[in-house]
Structure formats: structure tokens, C-alpha cells
Amino acid sequence: MMENNSYRRLTRSTTDRRIAGVCGGLAKYLNIDPTVVRIIFLVALLCGSVGFWAYLIVWIAAPEDNLIEK
Q1: Domain encompassing residue 52
Q2: 2-15 pLDDT, tens per residue?
Q3: Fewer CB atoms < 10 Å away: N or C end of the chain?
């Protein structure tokens, strides 16, 4: 049986970061522009506290991309 090791991991970006690299890492994971992710988080933050809590949870849970062995 052949094992497939080509899976994606959500990590925080160390190169495309403004605060903690959450939006840059999420954009890389979803293969979209980081600006779009930042705008979505900003709108979620302005609409209530969901954006803040989501950002905080990903910040704590996702490791930085330089900590993951390639």
C-alpha cells in the first residue's frame, strides 16, 4: 500500500505577516491573496468578536511555517 505524504498544513507565515502571520498562512493554505483574508478578518472583527476569537485561536493553534520540517 502506497502512502501519500502530499497533504497541506495550516501554518502561520513568517514571510507574509503583519501581526502574527495568521492571514498570510491562511491565504497560502487556501491559495488566495492575503489581502482578501485580511479584509475578511477585519469585517468579522467589526461585525462582532468572532474575527478576534478566530484570529486568536489560529494564532495559538497553528505553528510557524519555519518550525515544520519539509
Answers
A1: 22-63
A2: 455 567 888 888 88
A3: N
